[in-house]
Amino acid sequence: MRAGAPARLLLVAWFLAPLAGVALWALADQWTAATVLPQDWGLRGWREALADGLPAALLRTVVLSSTVALLATPAGAMAARGLVRVGPRLRAAASVLLVVPVVLPPLTVVLGVDVLLLRLQVPAAVGVVAVLVVQALPYTTYVMWTTYQAYDEAYEDEARTLGASALRTLLRVQLPLVAPGLAAASFLALLVGWSDYIVTLVVGGGRLVTLPVLVASNAAGTGNEPVVAALSVVAIGPPLLLLVAVGLLGRRGRRRAPTRSSVADTTDTARMAGVAS
Amino acid sequence: MTRLVTPLVKPPPSRRLFQRPPSRRRQVLLLLPALVPIVALVLATLSALGLQSLGLMPLVGRPRVSAAAYTAVGADLLSATGLTLAIAAAATLLAVGVGLVTALLVVSFTPLSRLVRLSAAATVTVPHLVGAAAVGLLVADSGVLPRVLGLSAQQWPDLVAGPFWVAVVLEYAWKEAAFVALVVGAALATRVAQYDETAALLGAGRLHRLRHVTLPLAAPSLVVAGTISFVYVVGSYEVAWLLGRTYPEPLPVLAYRLFSSADLAARPEAAAAALVTSLVATAVASVGLLAARRWRVHA
Asked: Which of A79, A100, A261, B31 is the most exposed place for a label (fewest CB within 10 A)?
């Protein structure tokens, strides 16, 4: 479809234009109005961002989003495993409950529970993590649900009949087989934590300065475009690199995932479970 | 969502001989780590907001039932609801349009299609707040776009903090179009090629195939993705706060301003605004999901 080339270029421009603006500003030292390109290129924005606490904010964002992913992924995976096994009525009820955190705006959640968290003297960071884990659970559960729907428990049975323990079967058979799903689920959970602004702001009481909080406080002022751009590059970069990594991992996982279950595959299962040489 | 693991052929039934039937009760236990936090947080949120908005959970003073919070900000709530719905409708319409076109154009495997797919995927990972900052850097009167076009700040319309919420709508449309493209693209990727080829072999023209094959296949996921986008925009705070004007306000901005005001008496009003926001989001979600279900039945 060569006729679609201009349309495709337009779409690329639509998606990349805001990022291109960030890239230009991140390298501009001096850029007076009504000139097409900056007069002076340089790292002014980066120096100001470093002075404004960029490393600490980045560290907080990394710790926060990893914690959210570490908690929401196993819980979502367990729920998904349960969902493919329970009866249809319970499954329907659970899937309705799982939609609720997507519908209920995070702002209203934190305006509601903020007073409760204060009265119960829950530490701010714990409160932020708890709210964000609930925001992430629908995504991790959904991804793992589709994963387990395409997953064959017979591999576990084979490993068990060959003498592997339950733990060994989990570690050597089940987890490797659902690894691509786990990667995608934890990436989504990570994104929930990485992107959050309002939950961190309200429950964190303004003291938990993550990357988005730092971007917001700079973007709300005027005349500091280079700092905002430098901070934005750091906020956009890591998830993007992870996306590429997860994509490559997923492709490899798909290629390696066994496509049929037969007696011949038993030796593979056995090797994975480490019960036969 | 793409299928992450290739579906496996079911094993022969003889395996049942070795297997104890998994107990139902244990399976229910597996659901608890996800469902208990969700239910707890939702119940806590709704009851706290309800009690606060009715004056039953005051920060200072004695609890007394009153609808004062609702009447005090009643007019603001009404105009804020209208504005919120207008912004969400405009942004979702744009997002669904651009997202659908993107999904239709990336099904092929040319390098340019791959570039479109990559740039849309990259957009999905950008935090909305950072996206708002980026759109501000692009379309503000001191932004990149007026500079590239050689226009002065006076010649450039007030897209940021202007009367029509243009920058706000653009940011949501930009991010959500990528999301819509991802969801609809995944739904199309698995099935559209076969049906399209069959229809082509049977002699259907391009427009015919688009109308009778591709669009019906895309419709359910399009409705779902559009609903999720709409609901997200209704409940989202940071983009309208950063790129919008100060008055009138969308619901979340109103709720947060009341919440953070120095006047503690405004807390019930903030709770009322937050509850109305949730109500609007729930109503939109219900309509959208019902529509999606009906569509799927008809398709």
From this structure: A100
Q: How many residues does chain A have?
A: 277
Q: Taken in order B22, B25, B29, B35, is the CA torsion positive or negative? A: positive
The least confident of A183-192, A266-275, B30-39 is: A266-275
The pTM assigned to this predicted structure is 0.88
Between CA B214 and CA B193 the distance in angstroms is: 9
Q: In chain B, what residues touch A178 (CB-CB under 8 Å)?
A: 5
B151 Rama class: left (phi>0) / alpha (psi -120 to 50) / beta: beta
Cα–Cα distance for residue pair B259/B268, rounded to 1 Å: 8
The number of residues in chain B equals 299
Ramachandran sector of residue A223 (left: φ over 0; alpha: ψ -120 to 50; beta: rest):
left
Q: How many CB atoms lie within 10 A of CB B46?
A: 16
Best of B45, B209, B232 to mutate (most A CBs within 10 Å, chain A) = B45
CA distance A28 to A45: 8
Q: Could you report the per-residue pLDDT of B190-201, keeping only the tens digit for each?
A: 777 788 888 888
Say yes or no for a CB contact (<8 Å) between A261 and B10: yes
Q: Are A130 and A148 in contact (CB under 8 A)?
A: no
Closest CA to A72 of A139, A137, A132: A137
- Rounded CA separation B207/A69 (Å): 44
φ/ψ region of B40 (left if φ > 0, alpha if ψ in -120 to 50, else beta) reads alpha
As a whole number, the mean pLDDT across chain B is 87
Q: Can you tell me whether residue A145 is helix, strand or coil?
A: helix
What whole-number distance in Å separates Cα of residue A132 and Cα of residue A190? 10
Which ipTM value was assigned to this complex? Answer: 0.87
Helix axes B251-259, A106-119, angle to 10 degrees: 20
Q: What CA–CA distance (Å, rounded) separates A44 from A41?
A: 9
- B248 prior amide bond cis, ω within 30: yes
Q: DSSP string spanning A152-164?
A: -THHHHHHHHTT-
Distance, in Å, from the CA atom of A37 to the CA atom of A27, rounded to the nearest integer, reads: 11
Q: What is d(CA A144, CA B227) in angstroms, rounded to the nearest whole number?
A: 22
Query: Rounded distance, CA B234 to CA B194, Å?
Result: 38
The tokens for B94 are 């744009």
The structure tokens listed for B2 are 């793409």
Task: List strand residue ranges (DSSP E) for A28-90, in order.
Answer: 28-30, 40-41
A61: chain B residues, CB-CB within 8 Å:
none
Output the CA torsion sign for A20, A21, A22, A25.
Answer: positive
Between CA B84 and CA B95 the distance in angstroms is: 16
What is the SS3 assignment for A28? strand
Which 3 state secondary structure label does DSSP give B67? coil
- The answer to whether A164 and A273 have CB atoms below 8 angstroms apart is yes
Q: Quote the minimal CA–CA distance from B29 to chain A in Å.
A: 8
**Cβ atoms of B185 and B117 closer than 8 Å:** yes
Per CB-CB distance under 8 Å, the chain A contacts of B134 are: 18-19, 21-22, 232
